[in-house]
Amino acid sequence: MLAPKQILVLISGNEKKHEALERALEFAAIEDVHLHIFSVVYESISALEVIFNNDDREKTKQDFIADRYIYLDTVANDLEEKGIKCSARVEWNHSLHDAIEAVIEELKPDLVIKRIGTGKNNFNPFTTPVDRNLIRYSPAPVLLIKSDSWKTRPITLAIDPIAFDETHIELNNSILEYGKMLSQLTNNKLNIVSSFTIPSPSSTLDLPPVDYDLIRKNNKSSIETKLQALLKQHQLPLENIHVVEGSPNRALSDFIVKSGSQLLILGSVGRTGISAMFIGNTAEQILSEMSCEILAIKPVQK
Hints:
Rossmann fold, about 20% strand, 9 helices, ten-stranded mixed beta sheet, about 40% helix, alpha/beta
């Protein structure tokens, strides 16, 4: 997978430094990229209905948008002077997620970068609806970050080597290629992680004795063999394969903590419609346990 060339950078406020933009510039250091810096503004004007007429309210709205454009254009011009292609975009929308989804659909970026939502539990991207919906619905890869730069910490790739359907096989390949590219960009090592579980029969069933240690050993060996074959296809070193026992969310969460990983890369086949409100997919279950940065990759749309 090639480095992203069209990057949508989501920023807010008039800060001197934006983490998402700083991270995007690290891609610009190795590739000729076009940065689309995007901001959503909205101020409730309904409370001013008694004071202002429709024209006055519209002028107030346009003033808010113009003020934001002035700031973004300044940022974009500074980048252009440094030889980095950059364009600014401002949208007026009370729904941040709807505005982001619309601009992704229009621009079709190779990557979306956003700072993990700030709040009481900002260690986890799934504590904010915007970040959660971005991972669920964005057709483009979404990078949710915490800091303005890459750290000297491992990058963990969540791989399902026993996948047999085309969608998940494609995701495995995309994850490995993205991981290889980011490893070269950051000079950080890759950890390739897969998990497995051993089902336990009901204690009420009268079954013959089972050698669970042998089953565990065979499962682990089989997954390791499949991982090695995948890594050879992508010309990646084999020494950082980790096969861990446990449910995907718990096993990965524990591994992230133990390894001190900065970033987890995984595939996400998001649900849509009513079922999405009640049933999270595997990626969402995993992410609810994470305290690191996240890169969620979707299958290529055909």
